[in-house]
Design brief:
It comes from Ornithinibacillus salinisoli. By secondary structure, the protein is an all-alpha fold. 80% of the residues lie in helices and 0% in strands.
Length: 82
Amino acid sequence: MLGIVIASVLVIYWAILIPTQYQNIAATKEESRKLGKHHNEINEEMSFEQQQLQYNLQGNLFNLPATLVAMLIYKIRNPEKQ
């Protein structure tokens, strides 16, 4: 019973986090296009606080499922020509 409750809470958490992750991914890609720089170059120019916020949002393994789903949705909605 406890496992079902924990799993339900995690699924709800990830479902709520997906739009936030999507907006972050879209904003990062848009900024990269505007500035004509790669993601790493933009990160180097960020302040320490911004880098930490970005790392906590994208780099946390607990947020990985939401990040993967958000990235998949972004790639489907915005196919990039290679």
